[in-house]
Amino acid sequence: MIFQTAAHKPDTSEHDSAQDVELRKVFKVFDGETAVRGVDLEISRGEFFSILGPSGCGKTTTLRLIGGFETPSAGEVLIRGKSMNHIPPYQRPVNTVFQSYALFNHLSIAENIAFGLRIKRLGKAQIEEMVEEALKLVKMESYANRFPSQLSGGQQQRVALARALVNRPAVVLLDEPLGALDLKLRKQMQVELSNLHQDSGLTFVMVTHDQEEALSLSDRIAVMHDGRIEQVGSPTEIYERPKTAFVADFIGETNLLYGRIEAADRRVLHIRTGNGLKIVVETSEPWSHSGSQVVVSVRPEKIHLSLNPPEVKANCFEGRLKNVMYLGTHVYYVVQLLSGENLTILQPNTKGSLPDQQTPIYVHWSEKDCIALQGS
Fold this sequence. Notes:
Layout: E1 19-30, E2 33-44, E3 48-52, H1 59-67, E4 74-79, E5 82-83, E6 94-98, H2 109-119, H3 124-137, H4 153-165, E7 171-175, H5 183-200, E8 203-208, H6 211-217, E9 220-225, E10 228-233, H7 235-240, H8 245-250, E11 255-264, E12 268-273, E13 278-282, E14 293-298, E15 304-306, E16 316-326, E17 330-337, E18 342-348, E19 360-364, E20 370-374
Parallel strand pairs: 3-8, 3-9, 6-7, 7-8
Antiparallel strand pairs: 1-2, 1-4, 4-5, 9-10, 11-12, 11-14, 12-13, 14-20, 15-19, 16-17, 16-19, 17-18
Helix pairs in contact: 2-3, 2-4, 3-4
């Protein structure tokens, strides 16, 4: 068997580093424009790691630096403890899966997968065994003799994955691998990609701008902005405990309320917004002094609605219902507070009747369900 399950990952005794990928103060400059600014990353062996961010943030350049398609302007890229700065792409222990699949249309599926093995001049019997095993891994055994033009987009992506996995690289790089697929097929392929990662036990590094995709697939996520890493953490950490307003706003949806700290102790912050809202935030983070600028993030699903004044004092405000959007499983509301702020709220669909627009309504949330972030 050339593939091992996640419970039996490749032997690491001959490698000094427990990290498969390291970036140390890496910069990349194109024609005077800095695309990557001092990135530090450590990606552990067997991890599914995603680099997430908006277009132009530097995430694809970072992936290309790992793959060897770009050379750092400064800093160092290491794979399994060995510097890769002067190692060309074809000599690095990585394989890349592109959004465009990059299959050879004149070769059969089996020949596409075997292409890299033939370049290594492996024996015919060994190549056939490895190709067969790769096809089994992606559930494409019966398609070995077909050509790429005879396959659907999802099937072509499976072949591209098999071709990347068959060489048993240290790291599989995924450049927006599901971006060309329609929504339903993309969801199916997310499950298959997760299963492939678990079955192969290899390190996956994926670039994507799709927050849901990164949250559902990744062990850890790096959020990039303007060439820098804003935060690295597990999906739960990134979503529930963002460290900056950018991360809070980019990952999913959130309501951002800007204000200043009026009072603070070890556990609670009292914040007043520019429009006079008094917000209470329970926090475990130390805050220096009153008067500091702060941004309060409240996720739409954390906010509760009531047609009558609720029996809560903190973080309860009156408003008017401005918009209602029926989403099937959920209902999306926009409420304008009397102070002027607009809040978005996401509630499960309980089959109740939807209130009319301009209906007086109350919003409220727990002190534990909002987070204070450093203001600018």
